[in-house]
Batch of 2 targets.
Target 1
Amino acid sequence: MLIDPLQLQALQNQDNHLLLCCLLRPVGVSAESINESDLIPSSQLFDIDDFSATDAPFPHTLLSASEFEIKARALGINNDSSIVVCDNIGIYSAPRVWFSLTLMGCNNVLLLNGGIPAWKASGYPITHDSVTASREGDFSAREQSDRVATKEDVFAAIGKADVRIIDVRGAARFYGQVPEPRAGVRSGHIPGSANIPYANFIRDGRFKPRSELEKLFQDAGCSVDKELIFSCGSGVTACIGYLAALLCGYKNIRVYDGSWAEWGAIESLPIEL
C-alpha cells in the first residue's frame, strides 16, 4: 500500500504508470503557510472537490460509480494502470485519493509515504508544472460499497460491542471545546465513539511504524475481531485512519462518508460532549 521515494523514482519511466497529486488544503490553514507549487515531475493533479458530488448537501461526498468512471478516464486511468498517489503535506489528502480509487475498483494503487516533502528531502527533482493525460483511459468502475458507512449504519452501530467508531478529528473538536469550522454544525461527537486524532498516526509526514499504530488502536478499545468505522470532519482524514488500520491487519473497516459534517448538522441525531 505504501511506497517510498526511491521506489517511486524507479517507476517513473514505466509504461502505464500514473502519478496523481492532491493539493487539498487542511481546514483552517492558509495558503501562505504551505507549499502549493512544488510537484513531482509527471504529476497529474487530483482534485478531491472535483471528485465529490456537487449535488450533495455535505462536502466531499463520494461520487457515484458512473460519475467517477467518467472523471477517472479523463485522467487517463485504465483498468490495468499502476497508480501512485501523493500530497503536498506528507500524509493528509492522499489517503482519501487512495481510498476513492480502490473503492471504485482500481487494483494497483500505492501511496507515497511522506508525500512531496519526502521526495524533496531525498534529493529528487521538483517541477512547478503538472501534466495532463495524453489520451482517455478505459477504466470501468466496480464500486465496493461495503467499505462505506451511512449515517444509518453508524446509528445502528452505537453501543454494539463488536463495532468501534473512531473519530479522527482533533481532541478539542471531538470534546466540543471549540466551535466547528463549518456553519450550522453542532459541536461534540457520536455517542460511544473513540478519538484518535489523525495526526497521531503520523510522524514527520509519514505513517508511524506498525507497532505504534497497533498500540493506538488497542488503547482506543479496538481489536482485529471488531468492525471499525472511521469518521472525521468531511470524510477526508477518516481515510488516514482507514489506511492505518489496514496497515495493522484490520479487515472489517469502513469510512463514514458523511462524517461530522453530516452527523453534526442533523438535529435528530444524538451527540455527546
Note: The longest strand covers residues 17-22.
Target 2
Amino acid sequence: MFHYLAAILPLLLFFSDPIIRLFSAAPPQIRRLPRPQLNPDLLALEDGSINYTCPASGYTVHIYSRAPLVLYIENFLSPSERDHLLEISEPLYQPSTVTHNGGATSEHAPAIRDSQVAVVPRTEGVRCVEDRARALQGWRSQVWIERLRVQRYAAGGHYAHHFDWSSGRGGWGRVSSFMVWVDAKGEGEEGGGEGADGGGDGLEGGGTEFPLLKRARDARWCAFVECADDEWSGGGDDAEAGNGTVFKPVPGNAVYWENFRADTTGRGYEETWHAGLPVKKGVKVGLNIWSWGWIE
C-alpha cells in the first residue's frame, strides 16, 4: 500500500492545480475589441514633426500605495510651468460638466461638480508636461495622454465622489489619472504657498479625498495628507493605518494612480473613488492628466 501511494502522489500533485482551477469560480476576462479610432481633439497624440526642447525635471516620487498603485510626486510642475498654465487657461474657462451614458451626453450640474474647466492649447510647455506624464508611465505603446484640462475651484467649488474609470468596455478605458495642483491661494493673494507643511497659504478646504484608500502609517506623510492632531503617538511602522486619505493641495505636487486591476478582468479599483472637497475660502487650480488606452 505504501508503495502504491508513493507512486500516485506525484500524479496528484501534478494535476491538483489544474483541477482546482477548473472547478473554481474564476473572474471573467475582458472581452477584447479592436482599438477605437483615435480622436486628436480628445487625445494629445505625439507628433514627430514638431521640434521642442523640454527642461530637465527634478521631481521626487514616493510610493503611497501598491494596490492600487498610488504615487505622490513632489515638484511635478516647476514654478514657470505653473505660471504658464495659469496664463493660457485664463481666457478659456467654461463651466465644468458631468457625463452620462458613457460620455455620450453631458450637463452642467453644480450640485455634483462646481468648477470651471479649460482645455489648454498644446504649447511647447504643455507638450513637455505631456511628455513627463508619458515617461512616468513607461511610454506604454497602447496608452495615450488625453488633452490636458485645468480646473479652477472658487469658494464653494467641489467635485462629488466619483471614479475616473468607466466600464472599460472592450478592453479600452481611462487607465490612469494624475491630480496636479497648479495653484492654491487665499482671498486677495496673488499665488499659493509651496511650503512642505502642505496646502496653499490662506486656502481652506479643497483637498482631494480617497475615502476607501488606507492612510499611510508614517507620520512623515502628514506633510502631504491631512492627519488629526492626536493621530500619531509614536509614528513610524508602529502607528495604526487610518481609514481614508485626503491629499492637501500643495502647488507643484501631484498624485498619480492606476484605475484598473492588472488581472485582465477589466475591474476597476474601488479605492480610487475620490472627490474634490469643497473649497471653504480662496481659490484652488488643478490640472487633470488622464491616460486612455489598453487595459492590461
Note: Residues 2-23 form the longest helix (22 residues).
